[in-house]
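Researcher: Structure prediction, please.
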Amino acid sequence: MSSPLAATVHRKIKGRLVIATHNAGKLREMHELLAPFGIEANSAAELGLGEPEETGTTFAANARLKAQAAATSTGLPAFADDSGLSVDALGGEPGIHSARWAGPDRNFKRAMEIVEAKLRALDAVTPAQRGARFVSALCVAWPDGHLEEFASDVTGRLVWPPRGEQGFGYDSMFLPDGLDKTFGELTSEEKHGLPPRGRGLSHRARAFIKLAEACL
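Model: Predicted structure follows.
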């Protein structure tokens, strides 16, 4: 009889942490997720770090690239997220290019209009034709090269016109399965509040719960 595999040993996050993002909405959510654990965190923007070119072909690869760049630059552990919207009828687009569809000025109103125009060009107008999911890949990188990586998603469908001003990115056109409010209509606690107070509903919260169980 073969011996059981040894349990994976995860590294705990201690001391200061760099949040490797320049996205204000994403930074706010990541601060809120970390807050219950008492982690002192500064953003890449606050530390004057540049934004590395996202050359990866997957969410995980881009999260890893951003975390490693920040950890190398600062000598501190760095936490990065790469996330986006994957639309079934569009073959998974915009996917890892979700931010790029918003352009250099990060105009997500325009990005949502592009998504809607592409769906209408396919005559995808019924709820069944408008399935989508949000995906989040998280990575914590240490200066010595150690990595911890986690991922999750949340499924739903796209609505038009967009509803709500609470979120960011494509939130206001994404209606998660089982709810009658878009991510743009949910409060922060409703969207990504962690148990026991919240449901850990969002893709980022679901991935973060895995990270917290392993590293916090």
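Model: The longest strand covers residues 147-158.
Researcher: Thanks, that helps.
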